[in-house]
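hey team, just a heads up i'm posting the complex here instead of the shared drive bc the drive is being weird again. everything in one block, sequence lines first with there labels, then the predicted structure for the whole assembly after. its two chains so it's a bit long, scroll down
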Amino acid sequence: MGSIPKIVILGAGYGGILTAQNLQKALRHKEAEVTLVNRHDYHYITTHLHMPAAGTDSIEHARVSISGLIDGSRVDFVKSTVQAIKLDEKKVILDQGSLDFDYLVLGLGGEPETFGIPGMLENALTIRSINSVRLIRDHISYQLAMYKNDGNPARLTFVVGGAGFTGIEFVAELADRLPILCREYDIHPQDIKIINVEAAPTALPGFDPELVEYAMDVLKGKGVTFRIGVPIKECLADGVIIGEGEKIPAGMVVWTGGIRGNHVIEEAGLEVMRGRVKADEYLRAPGHDHVYVIGDNSVFMNPEGRPYPPTAQIAMQQGAVCARNIAAAIHGKEPQKFKFSNKGTVASLGRGEAVAVVGGRKIKGWVAAQLKKIVDIRYLFIIGGIPLVLKKGRFF
Amino acid sequence: MGSIPKIVILGAGYGGILTAQNLQKALRHKEAEVTLVNRHDYHYITTHLHMPAAGTDSIEHARVSISGLIDGSRVDFVKSTVQAIKLDEKKVILDQGSLDFDYLVLGLGGEPETFGIPGMLENALTIRSINSVRLIRDHISYQLAMYKNDGNPARLTFVVGGAGFTGIEFVAELADRLPILCREYDIHPQDIKIINVEAAPTALPGFDPELVEYAMDVLKGKGVTFRIGVPIKECLADGVIIGEGEKIPAGMVVWTGGIRGNHVIEEAGLEVMRGRVKADEYLRAPGHDHVYVIGDNSVFMNPEGRPYPPTAQIAMQQGAVCARNIAAAIHGKEPQKFKFSNKGTVASLGRGEAVAVVGGRKIKGWVAAQLKKIVDIRYLFIIGGIPLVLKKGRFF
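-- predicted structure starts here --
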């Protein structure tokens, strides 16, 4: 590499933004050419999307302009969609043009995993982008408006598939939001049904059972019906078929039941497990020392050999280490092994309620809800400092 | 009639509310039993519905709770839908129960007239009630949200059928509203199309040609495309077929092309012209001296023998005279002939623009727009005094 090395970061999610920001710090001026590629000119705060989806917070609180997050003199930004990755040619094909790379960071994020459930891809909505949650928000009010014109009671049934973190957090916001919408649309709140369907034997699989019970009690108190241990067999345009063939007519089905990797990564010829690349201890794709995989595009194993769940937290930590390791490679230094440091987990349960595990301690209720806000604000501070906290933070 | 006479007013529109309020004044306590029947527990300001339909004003500014408009000790209010009118039995059948009457006032309002255009009833939205305009408002944003997910450009085409007062006023609000929505939904305003289709040879038929031209120029300047003298041949789920078979793919079709009378009135066995009863000079249905017809349920002829257009203005004046004539009948006095007094006409063209004819004078632009606000505020004052003006009035 005689000339300046080219670093291309695909995706401006948690991992990609942290990689870009840390590269800005770790590299001297003109030491490398860093290009960040993203489909939109904004970064979105995925862990916050359940709120604008339900309409309990504004869309603008869930996204940040990328130009405000990176130093344009150090990192180039290209707004484009990645079509293909040519690993042998060290080239990325975009919808308009292409980019050569010496180092590649794969942080394109995941795609909904529907496990082949018939009709799910076609008929269900998903919480995965600003555009998709805006559609959910508008779909909810559209159903209420339609109900007031055609009287079809199924329009007032809202089904959420999946009771993982996203499903539970979204259901909680829905339960907070719908009574307010009912007043606006002259609908009796008792006529609304919110049904959360989960195939696994428990809600929030992997989470502390005592907190799971607390969470379900809070949500039941808000009017949510749980169907736990019941699989969705089929998603229709007007409802779902669950369990042994029971049909639930519904005006909306939101699928939160799974995330897989990215089809672009699979098609690149990398070895994947459900669309994710099993990263080595330096976050590199096996056999491709110049290709780093982070966030939902990677699978990283814990010391017991089981994959860590794909969270914002791990993606951010991976972004920082990935940047350090690319800088080390350029500087001819030793890379650093990635080690996940678990800061804890918080699941919001709507206004004033949450459950959390921090440092082995269980926290619930109002205190946990404040913790959730602190986690969100801490993230805004990390990526954008005080100005971003003041602009996008939710304090109340 | 030995006992107290029973007066039943069907419909709490412009005519019905004015009848009820004037009866309160004209009759002494216990002189009659007055019952007002309406489908909703609120009165809506039909001439204002084009704004919440486009989302340029709130729904709440277009409706008023009926309990705030009538004196509950003088007029009973029944929230119910009229199923049938049995003129011979002097009985009104409601969806729950029935009411006997000695005097009946028909002010049920009109229904959309689609002139048998195929698919119009099934596929087009209409500006006729709080529920219907809420659906239009939500349908607009739903199309924008869908576009950002499926990229179908037809979703950004909005067709309004009919360029009468409602059509023109609604198109103007749409043209004001869509650029704002475009910013919210990350859509280029140039990608939006607003098309106003009118079969008649001119927009605003019957209005002053100079003002029609001015109105069209204002709206063209806001990006509206006119197809005047072109009939809609069919309304589809995904657009319209116009003229000689040209298809306009569209995400929304709003039909404002006509109003007819009410099917309940037709089914009552009264002689009707397009669902409207030709009222006698005292506002009574021919051959039924105890049945009064007002507003969109009636046709009233001008001195040249042509029907007056059905407006809020004429309905209000009819309500006042109708009340006076019922009181006269009860008091054994002579009824009064109805004479329409034209206070003028204003058509709003969106923010800061309107056209008006008042006392034969043509007024356009900002002054006409202020006039429109004054007309609206005057109406709020008539039905609810200063408190209602302060609560629902738009001053800016």
